[in-house]
Amino acid sequence: MALSQAQTLPAKPPAGVVRAPDRGELIGWVRALESGTAYKWIEERVARHGPIFKTSFMGNRTVVVTGPVANKFVFTSGDDMLRSHQPVPIVYIAGEQSIFEVHGTRHKLVRGAIAGFLRPESLQRSVPLMSSLVKRYLTKEVEGKDSVSGVVLLKKIAFKVSCAVLFSLTDDKETDELFDEFLLVLKGAWVLPIYLPFTPYYRALAARRRIYDRFSAIVDERWRRLEDGSLSPNDDVVTAMLSMKDEEGRTVPRPEILDNLITLVMASHDTGVSLNASFVRHLAMNEVTLKHICEEHTKSSVRRKMET
């Protein structure tokens, strides 16, 4: 969190515990996330220190704000009051020039290119493709198996759909290799940032370099096809970002485009997986809800058949 110099700071700093920068409370937070008790982790500290408390994560001194007033402050403040920054280890993984690290006109430029490609009418054209991909991958992954890991399956399908819609990548071998690399990256995003060959953080940065090289080749190929007219700026998010120009009419540098492509894949597939995994977990734990959902789908299927 960054506060403007003009803002009056409280005379007394927030309560809380700031441990050694290399330790902090990251381990406890990650364990809470893995066990599904993150809200309890927050509630315990709110009860102990109040709705605003200080701590440390991944070598960064951190102030945690909770409650409706804090949410309003975060979501309504401009760049002159509050700026978004990721912890330094995550910056190295996502990229120093990703949309989460740039501000002002640069942020608006990148956000505009991504939002333009993901506007409702564009996504509507992608619905048939996404539907067919989900059916094909779901059938392929569960065929001949008595059980599957729900979260891993959802991650893989979401990743493949993201690659197809965002980057026009549909080759199974290529997307499987990229998926394995991104799993290494995501595993290293919330761990102690120890840069030694046997650590998850080291493997995550190594995987990121390989993804960077692969995306760099994709950018080169898209650029050549844009120049010869076989592609347009609206064909996928890569061509959209290659066609971006700043206020002075200059194209965006390649490293900035590549950082944002990596960040986009990480953000797009992880958010969707969290929502879908929660939905599947709810169905597995609530037989009544599952029964109603199955009945609704059966009725809908019958109705569609009658209409055709």
UniProtKB/TrEMBL annotation:
It comes from the Eukaryota. Keywords: Iron, Metal-binding. The keyword Transferase does not apply. GO terms for biological process: sterol metabolic process. GO terms for molecular function: heme binding; iron ion binding; monooxygenase activity; oxidoreductase activity, acting on paired donors, with incorporation or reduction of molecular oxygen. PANTHER family: CYTOCHROME P450 26 (PTHR24286), CYTOCHROME P450 FAMILY PROTEIN (PTHR24286:SF256). This is Cytochrome P450. It comes from Acorus calamus (Sweet flag). The lineage of its organism: Eukaryota, Viridiplantae, Streptophyta, Embryophyta, Tracheophyta.
